[in-house]
Amino acid sequence: MGIPDSGDSMEPADFLPRHRLQSLLDHLLQQGFEILAPQLRDGAILFRPTQHVDQLPRGVTQQQAPGHYRLQQGDSPRCFSWANGPQAIKPLTFTPQETLWRSELQADGSLRFHEAPVVTRATAVIGVRGCDLAALALQDRHFLERIEDPLYRQRRDSLLLIAVDCSHPADTCFCASTGDGPEAQTGFDLALTELAEGYRVRAGSVRGEGIMRALPLVASDAALRQEAIEQARRARQQQRALPDFDPAALIQQGEHPAWDKVADACLSCGNCTSVCPSCFCHSEAEAPTLDGQQSEHQRQWDSCFSEGHSYIHGLHVRPDTRSRYKQWLTHKFGSWVEQYGRSGCTGCGRCISWCPVGIDPLQVLRELGEEVK
Ligand code: SF4
Ligand code: SF4
Fold it and tell me: Helices 361-369 & 321-330, crossing angle to 10 degrees?
C-alpha cells in the first residue's frame, strides 16, 4: 500500500505517515502541553508523561479474558494494537484521593476554612478510546451538570483529548453493542486511525483543527481509505455483546437465584468499580494534624462493594455481598438509565478482565433474564 508523498491531490490532507508521528508530539510540546500517552509499565499499559514516540508500546498486543490480562510483544510497528489498560482517564479528572478543603482552628475557638488549590497544567492525552470518551461524558454529567464540582472542572478544562480508534478490541470488549466504540465518536479534539503505514487524522474541535493545520499531513489515497473501512469493520466483530434486558425490570429483579450464585463467587473486593471509567462513588474523611490545630477534608474513591459505603447511623443498608453486587449491577445497568438517560456501562470490559474471580456481568444479566423453573 503506497503512501502519497505530497498534498497536491484534491482530497483533504488527513494522513500522517508513521515516520512523522513525532511531529504531533513536538507540536504539542511546543504549544506548552504536557503529554500523557500509553506506555508499558509493570506488564500493563498505563498513561504516563511522554515526549517521544519511542516511549509508546510499539508492537504490543494483548490477551484479555475473565480474570485475565496479559500483554505480548510482537514485531509490528503499530503503537495502539491493544484495547485498553487497567485505567481509563478517570484519574485525571476524578482523582483517587484529593483534599477538598482545609480548616484551621482560630485563637477564639472558631474555624477558618481554606479552599484547596488545584494545580493543573495543559495536558494532551494521546490514545483515549471511544468507550472511555463516553465514560468521561457520563462523569461530566455527574460532576458538572447539577452541581459543578470546581476541582473536577479545573482538571477537565486542562485536557486536550487525542483519541485513537480501537483496531484490536479484546475478547472482553463489547462497546459495539453499547454504541460507544470501537471508533471514537464524539468528545475528542483530534482522533487517529492507526493503519499499517501511519495515521488517518480527523478533528473534533476547533483546537483539533488547529493542530491538524500544523501537522505535515498528506492526502489519503483510495487504498488507505479502504484499509480504514476494513479495519473498522473487523473491529466491530466483538465476541461479547450486551444482552437485551429491560432496565426498569432489572431494578425490580429481587429474588432471582442468579444473585445467590454471583454472591458466592464475588469477593466484594471492589476491583470492578476501581477500573470502571464511569463509576464515581467516593467517601470523605477528615485528616487532622496531631496537635488538632488544622485538618484536611479529603475525598477518595470508594465502592458500593465496601461495607462502610452503605453504613448509615448504626445500620448497614447492604450488609452482605449479595446485596452489594445487586446494588452495583442494578445501578450500573438499571437506575443509571433513569438518572442519566443511558446505562453506566460503555462496554470497555475492564470489570471482566480485572475481576480476580472472573465474574462477567453480561453473564449475570443473561441469567437474570432467564425464567426460574
Ligand atoms: S461496567 Fe465494566 S464494561 Fe461497563 S464501563 Fe464499567 S468497567 Fe467497563
Ligand atoms: S465482581 Fe469481581 S471485581 Fe467486583 S467486587 Fe466482586 S470479586 Fe471484586
Answer: 90
Among protein residues, the one whose CA lies closest to atom 2 of ligand 1: 351
pLDDT at position 52 over 60? yes
Quick one: pLDDT band at residue 194, thresholds 50, 70, 90?
Answer: very high
Sign, CA torsion 26/31/33/36: negative
Residue 295: closest CA among 104, 112, 108: 104
The DSSP secondary-structure symbol of 371 reads P
Give the residue whose CA is nearest to atom 4 of ligand 1.
Answer: 345
Q: Which pairs count as long-range contacts for 305-309, CB under 8 Å and 24+ apart, including other chains?
A: 305/266, 305/268, 305/269, 305/270, 305/272, 305/273, 306/268, 306/270, 307/268, 308/283, 309/281, 309/283
Taking every pair of Cα atoms in the chain, the longest distance, rounded to a whole number of angstroms, is 78
Contact 168, 61 (CB under 8 A): yes
The minimum-distance atom of ligand 1 relative to the CA of 347 is: 3
